[in-house]
Amino acid sequence: VSGEQGAKAERMFALMDRFLKNDPISLQKDILDHVEYTVARSRFNFDDFEAYQALSHSVRDRLIERWHDTQLYFKRKDPKRVYFLSLEFLMGRSLSNSVINLGIRDQYADALGQLGFEYEVVAEQEGDAALGNGGLARLSACQMDSLATLDYPAWGYGLRYQYGLFRQVILDGFQHEQPDYWLNFGNPWEIERIHVTYPVKFYGTVEDETLNGGKYKVWIPGEMVEAVAYDNPIPGYGTRNTITLRLWAAKPSDQYDIESYNTGDYINAVVNRQKAETISSVLYPDDRSYQGKELRLKQQYFFVSASVQDIIRRFKDAHSNFDEFPEKVALQLNDTHPSLAIVEVMRILVDEEHLDWNRASDIVGKIFSFTSHTVIAEGLEKIPVDLLASLLPRHLQIIYSINFKFVEELKKKIGLDYNRLSRMSIIEEGAVKSIRSANLSIVCSHTVNGVSRVHLELLKANVFKDFYELWPEKFQFKTNGVTQRRWIVVSNPSLSALISKWLGTEAWIRDVELLTGLREYAADSFLQHEWKMVRKVNKMRLAEYIEAMSGLKVSLDAMFDVQIKRIHEYKRQLLNILGIIHRYDCIKNMEKSDRRKVVPHVCIIGGKAAPGYEVAKKIIKLCHAVAEKINNDSDVGDLLKLVFIPDYNVSVAELVIPGADLSQHLSTAGNEASGTGSMKFLMNGCLLLATEDGSTVEIIEEIGADNMFLFGSKVHDVPILREKGPDLKVNLQFARVVRMVRDGYFGFKDYFKSLCDTVEVGNDFYLLGSDFESYLEAQAAADKAFVDQEKWTQMSILSTAGSGRFSSDRTIQDYAENTWGIEPCPCPF
Ligand code: 6GP
Fold first, then answer.
1. Tell me: the pLDDT tens digits for 311-328?
2. Is the minimum distance from the CB of 450 to ligand 1 under 6 angstroms?
3. Which stretches of the chain drop beneath a pLDDT of 70?
4. Is 328 in the active site?
5. Which of 478, 504, 524 is the last residue of a domain?
6. Ligand 1 pocket check for 606: Cβ under 6 Å
7. pTM
8. DSSP for 614-655, written as a single string
9. Is 819 annotated as catalytic?
């Protein structure tokens, strides 16, 4: 920088103390300053929550510093960037993750300690940012952490919902949903960018325009909303790089509204304007059903349009020729929710930048990649054409043109096979004519990814078969991973310290493959002893939580047996509960003297059901009804307890996972695209009881089938079993436990009838009956292993040792190298 600007910069530079200091005294001063000037409380009188607010602002200052440097550096280097578009990010809490990634957790803990506060207590004050439903959303959060840590020039883009995923409240065993107004107490982890705004248009008409001899389409919108950026800095671990998750909020636009003010109805005009904000008000709580709701479509287009405008603006700041666009930009579609980005890029290139169609479509074909997160055809999103025609008339035209050209090309390749042509068309004809978002995404992306090897096989064989045959080279898989920073270092600090001690280094936090080094000590009795101690302390923490929450005291000697995830029929929480009933029934019918041999279990189930998902809600109620019976049966005592953990979320997971001995992953084979919960448990040394589904197949390769408890039909058995129809040789034990529920043994007989029907012979789509026997065998094998604590601890160490492959660092590196074509860009200062 030269001239006057340069002189100014010099002066500024001299004034500021380069970089905030991280010694305890500076941190204390910093925290107290924030107490006084940001939180506006007296430095002599503030409570834990105010301490949290001040602390987080002090951390945020440090994030901002690194973030500015990183952004400046990226701007200077102008590398190819990846833009990760996702409608959902399940970030959870930010404080601990930030101080650990910045490497200043202990300093802050000291600083707070001297002020009379305990770090853990202060950190507990933070609420969860729950801007997502489940697996897909938490995966996005893990991937952001890896993108930052591996120094990739990346941006996340999403929506800043005012209400995150609903709070689950249980009354009399029934789930009730309450709004999660998470911004009530402020959010120090975001920075509002009042100057980064874009207009987003809706409705209206499309007209023709002639300009300099060229004919163009012009979209005259009927409504305009302003998108305002809220930036969330994402720090990497062991690097200065800090990247951005930019979330958009909807605000009324000043344009296009003058008319209504002029009509004189001032109050109504203001109220109508305010409606704009509803676009970013609430997250849809359904993770797998698409109802073609206008608001949902508005949300999708709103965040996609603002993001695409932002990306193009950034590109144009440094370039003038769009042919360079694919060298600078990779756009990742996280499932089909952001697929309108494809159409939006086409619209801007053709209508606004006046590129000719073929050139624009060539560019689009080079920048987009798409990852699917589901296996079931019914899970695929469809947009009713009528809805699109009214909301985004120009986009519908563009989709028709894309489809027309695609089908013409296709005919040349496959001939007039009308069945296949109609299956592959982006437009679905039928009672409700609609746009198939997946087809649009596949046609316009250079790469289609599955989230595990099995998932890709299923996509190729079923839902995307026609496309696979046409473009086999487009299809890849990137097995999911989770970040060890959050899922070991933040959530299980004592295990983390123990691992570092035995490996003699903390390098595994960045280079997680190093965990395999634990293998050589798995049989070492000293390590085993320490490992058990760490696990015991974590169980204690969990037991305290259970007691505080439900009043139930549980024994630490029992096996903590956990299933936490969204409630879905295919995830088969019902199988778990029926298994628990079976266990209970066995204990009740056992000779008293035999009870000594029973391995005590504390069964823990947690998860939310989509508000409209009746069967899932009944499963939650059944869990409570069974718990009520078992937990109050003095005959059973500590041998069996069942606990439902309400309002399962990221921070609850951080508490439960380190304290689990066994975790259950029971999906009917071929239904779980990948599964990521299992990876978190694995990292924490929890043993898995699982079907051979999704990523479990790869976990087996890594840690060995004898290091876990596998059961059930395999992926290729499932269609055969379903085809074959009801098995007349019904498992008697299964029939008995279902009958107990049916007969009202746990009460609510009428209410549970329809739930029992779902697993009746001939109806049992998820094959609970067929898998029951093998499920009980796996349970018995787990019990047997648990009795030999030395063996169990060894298996536990080997689980952690084999978990390195399931880090999101590996997934992200694979994406960067093989899908996006980007390179690390580490900020040097
Ligand atoms: C989930 C899949 O069900 C899960 O198997 C996978 O591990 C996760 O995505 C991450 O890839 N899918 C969703 O959460 C979802 O909403 C549309 O799919």
1. 999 999 999 999 999 999
2. no
3. 1-2, 9, 11-18, 255-263, 290, 726-729
4. no
5. 478
6. no
7. 0.96
8. HHHHHHHHHHHHHHHHHHT-TTTGGGEEEEEESS--HHHHHH
9. no
